[in-house]
Amino acid sequence: MCGIAGLVDPRLPPDQLAAWAGLMADALAHRGPDGRGVWCEAGAALGHRRLAIVELSPAGAQPMVSGDGRWVVSYNGELYDASDERSALSAAGHGFRGTSDTEILVELIARHGVAGALERVEGIFAFAVYDRHERRLWLARDRMGVKPLFYAASPERVLFGSTLAALAACPGFAPEINARAVSSLLRHGYVPAPGAIWTGIRKLEPGGLLSWRLGETPRLATYWRLDDAVAAGRSAPFAGSDAEGVERLETLLAAAVRRQMTSDVPLGAFLSGGIDSSLVVALMRKAGGETPRTFAVGFTDDPRFDESGHAAAIARHLGTDHTTLPVREADALALVERLPEIYDEPLADPSGLPTYLLCAATRQAGITVALSGDGGDELFGGYDRYALAERFAERIEPVPRALRSLAAGALARLPAGAARQIARALPEPWGGPDGADRLRKAAAQLGGDAFSLYGRLLTLNPAAQALARDVPGLPSPMDAPGESPLLDRMRRLDSLAYLPDDVLAKVDRASMAVGLEARVPLLDRAVVEFAWTLPRRLLVRDGRRKWILREVLARHVSRSLFERRKQGFAPPLAAWLRGPLRSYAGDLLSDPDCGGGFLDRARVRRMLDEHLSGGHNHAVGLWPVLMFEAWRRVQTKAEQPPSPYGKGVRDGSAW
């Protein structure tokens, strides 16, 4: 993996363009510690920071020019079908300078055009390619959104970069915070694409392709759409037996894992002990070669959040070279203040803390590439919220809405003490110390439908808009209506929004912050498209979710090692905010400048007081507020060189 950045602006002289592209690339040095490159000619400059994975020699350096001299690429990613495409290009007469997949990509573009090349390649990537003949810039992002790409474009100029930090490094570029993005962040915990936290900046969406030339409005297109894969799978569902389905999925996954093990540097895998990561590691073992090295974190201070014992048992069974990193509460707490630096667009997923610690430990152990199990829950229906929503549809929705509304009112009016008493008598997940708050949340949904419940389970702050001073959020796929079966709707929406904008963004920023490449075999195109052909019986059976993944894993690992209730990867936020993070949160959220005008300070203060007193558990709602305010403080301290374009650029609208 690498970091890419650049700008096209014909008004600037080449030496200034080159200098600025270099500054933008240097802001991505953590993503590419192994090399730096800048290419420039009149009106255009591409920058690159390299994390060398395949072809470690200078023959893999970027930006790279095609053999015919027409195309220049700055590329972040890996092509997993590189050997097949190399053979095809060699047969067509191309003589290769090295073994990098960057050269394969740029020569495919030279031979087939950008759109034609994208149709052929399988991998994870974000790239910029400049056509020197037409003086046109192209930007592209992989199908599922594993790799990030931000851009700011107008008819006069365009900037792009792997992260917002790269754009911020361009002298004079200082857009304002997007109030609607803040509202979305408070609701979802992330900013949904194509929006960004700053005005005038957009994320290129998964499967997206942008074309730009001076004087033109940027042209956006998609070369692959998840919805097309969903429609194709639904129109031609898998018709084989259960055994044939399991065999087919194992074949596809084994091929994906084998392709993604290609590397000229040390390779390992994350192993949580859950179904998805365990299956990836099992298939690595099946692929042969060196003994896989696996890594897990253990929360030594709180066994409720510790899966390291399960991971170690799986590792012993598979015979991996396994490392468990003991994470103390102090380790995670010390990281909190660095989160705005690691996640340069605020991301309020508390599992970002252990994810970063896992990535850092893996890199410190000498590993440069790690395989991950991300994507399994979205593709194969594994989340607990799917089960809760479907149970609601089956058991609660048939009750007349009027009766449900009466019950909801009664529960909502319960005194706090009575609610806690009832909660203590209830089983998990509704009982326990914070059960009273869960009761209130359940009450709020009784009058609705199952899909509304699903949406509520993904909403961190039901009053997000009020907290954001009545500013509505950005459009999100989560708000789109749909008529497909409930499970399909939930899987689709999570794959369109939560997966790329939260899960994959979290892993990308955490891994690249330490110069580690994370690969995701479960999101291989063939696996994704096959998953959408599967009938419900292969996804959910006898109360067991991800049934088909479990059956594949059972071929390699004893069921006793993985058949257990799903655990999360999030730290105990509620206790931390009342304990070791109390002063940190209080200092940020009680400051007279809290929110910088984007937050309703009185509501924030009330939430914090209610949480600290123990009257309510507002941890998941306070965390995005805290992450935004911490990020905003960092941004307001950053100094920008003066803009050569004048003051108008600072509001972002000129971009």
Automatic annotation (TrEMBL):
Q: What is its EC number?
A: 6.3.5.4
Q: Which residues form the Glutamine amidotransferase type-2 domain?
A: 2-215
Cross-referenced SUPFAM superfamilies: Adenine nucleotide alpha hydrolases-like (SSF52402), N-terminal nucleophile aminohydrolases (Ntn hydrolases) (SSF56235)
Gene3D superfamilies cross-referenced by the UniProt entry: Glutamine Phosphoribosylpyrophosphate, subunit 1, domain 1, HUPs
Keywords, in A-Z order: ATP-binding, Glutamine amidotransferase, Nucleotide-binding
Q: Family assignment?
A: Belongs to the asparagine synthetase family.
Name of the protein this chain belongs to = asparagine synthase (glutamine-hydrolyzing)
Q: Which organism is it from?
A: Methylobacterium iners
Gene that encodes it: asnB_2
